[in-house]
Design a protein that fits this description.
Blueprint: E1 2-8, E2 11-17, E3 22-27, H1 38-51, H2 68-78, E4 86-87, H3 88-94, H4 100-108, E5 121-122, H5 135-147, E6 151-156, E7 166-168, E8 171-178, E9 181-187, E10 193-194, E11 197-199, H6 206-218, E12 220-222, E13 228-237, E14 244-254, E15 256-259, H7 266-271, E16 273-278, H8 280-290, H9 299-314
Parallel strand pairs: 4-5, 6-13, 7-14, 8-14
Antiparallel strand pairs: 1-2, 2-3, 8-9, 8-11, 9-10, 9-16, 12-15, 13-14
Helix pairs in contact: 3-4, 8-9
């Protein structure tokens, strides 16, 4: 057998091959000595495309070891399209099996994660169910596929208990760049910077929320035709009132066609939100300097925005 490791946005992945096909892909590091194979290069190219939020198409050759029944279930799993999900009952019907429980066991024993997409199997009521990589990784993979947007990084405070009641509030944020400077909202009260944007309301698309929030919070009128995905940041931590707070922050590159008066709500007006075209390095320095002061309420947001700015600089966009 031959082994290699792939460092993904959801953590290290361990790969194994018999020399011609992939036999295992699991979450977590591998202690086995690594060997370069053309097959592993093909697997890495597939995974690179996948983690960019794009459908990578057919997988490299796969040879998962299992019973005839398991093989039938895994064959049907591979047929579930990128960005879609299937219930255990529907999967059982497709596999010609009358027992969703037996199908669940076959899904649980899948040795090739992601490429045989067991993360796409959910409960009949739409609820997320068990996953070998953990429920948070399952959420991240499904969000990546549904949004067709790459995962930039994860901010995991690890101060919560798994299985607790979760509160989720996704947000959409605009990255507007002009002459090497970036449009950001500055809090005159707390002296930090954030990308224009905010929570996605029920019934809104991410793009609709982006346009609304950028106009209200920063006075920026975005050109819808210019809006294109950049990536999302996954945040998970104990909430102020909830055992578990989950937020996916979706960042979009966009151009502004005009600047109009802001429409600030109560707390935004109290903080003195002001549109600024700021040097990104200055914003990074300011936000990072404040993370030691605002340990609870603003710490994650300040660090998140600084890390996104650093990513934009590293990728040559700023």
């Amino acid at each position: 057998m031959f082994y290699f490791r792939y460092d993904s946005p959801v953590g290290p992945l361990a790969l194994a091959s018999d020399g011609t096909s992939l036999t295992e892909l699991s979450f977590g590091p591998s202690s086995e000595p690594i060997t370069a194979l053309p097959l592993f290069r093909a697997a890495f190219a597939w995974l690179d495309e996948y983690f960019l939020g794009r459908d990578p198409g057919p997988t490299p050759p796969l040879s998962p070891a299992g019973t005839a029944f398991q093989q039938r279930v895994w064959h049907e799993l591979v047929r579930v399209p990128f960005g879609e999900t299937v219930s255990y009952g529907a999967l059982a019907k497709a596999a010609g099996c009358g027992s969703p429980r037996a199908v669940g066991q076959a899904v649980h024993n899948n040795p090739i994660a992601i490429m045989i997409p067991c993360h796409r199997v959910i409960g009949a009521d739409g609820s997320l169910t068990g996953f070998a990589g953990g429920m948070d990784i399952k959420r991240r993979l499904l969000t990546l596929e549904e949004s067709r947007m790459r995962l930039l990084f994860t901010m995991d405070a690890r101060n919560y208990e798994e299985g607790g009641k979760a509160f989720s509030r996704p947000s959409a944020r605009a990255v507007v760049i002009r002459n090497g400077r970036v449009a950001m909202v500055y809090s005159r009260k707390f002296q930090h910077y954030k990308f224009p944007g905010g929570g996605i309301e029920p019934g809104e698309t991410r793009e609709t929320a982006l346009l609304r929030e950028a106009r209200e919070e920063a006075g920026l009128v975005l050109d819808l035709k210019s809006v294109r995905p950049y990536g999302f940041v996954h945040r998970i931590e104990r909430g102020d009132r909830e055992p578990l707070f989950i937020q996916d922050n979706f960042y979009y590159l966009a151009s502004a066609t005009a600047v109009v008066p802001q429409e600030l709500d109560g707390y935004e007006a109290e903080e003195g939100y002001t549109l600024c075209w700021v040097d990104p390095k200055a914003a990074i320095q300011e936000n990072k300097a404040l993370t030691s002061i605002y340990k609870r309420k603003y710490h994650t947001m300040l660090l998140r925005e600084a890390m996104v700015l650093e990513r934009l600089i590293a990728e040559g966009l700023l």
